[in-house]
Amino acid sequence: YVGKTGRMMVACGPSQVGKVRLEVRGSTVELLAVPIDGETFSVREEVIVVEMDGAHAKVAKLTPERLSRA
After folding, report:
1. Integer Cα distance of 66 and 64 in angstroms
2. CB neighbours (10 Å) of residue 19?
3. What is the tens place of the pLDDT at every residue in 12-35?
4. What would the pLDDT profile of 39-69 be if each residue is shown by its tens digit?
5. Which residues touch 61 (CB under 8 Å, ≥6 apart)?
6. How far apart are CA 67 and CA 43, in angstroms?
7. pTM for the whole structure
8. What does the CA dihedral 69, 23, 58, 49 come to, rounded to 10 degrees?
9. Cα–Cα distance between 43 and 26 in angstroms, integer?
10. Residues 49/24, Cβ–Cβ less than 8 Å
């Protein structure tokens, strides 16, 4: 799932696990999400998965720079 973009369904923050929804090959996938940089993400905010840690997606703000590296 690394490099996939998605939308936060449950907010997350430095000590709070959230949930992100991704579209993968025509299917919807929801993963537990934690911020990579200690940021806080609100519901419906667009993010990019930058790393997987077991079942947790480490997410970051979706920026043009991160999108071009995906």
Report:
1. 6
2. 16
3. 999 999 999 999 999 999 999 999
4. 999 999 999 999 999 999 999 998 888 777 7
5. 39, 41, 47, 48
6. 20
7. 0.89
8. 0
9. 22
10. no
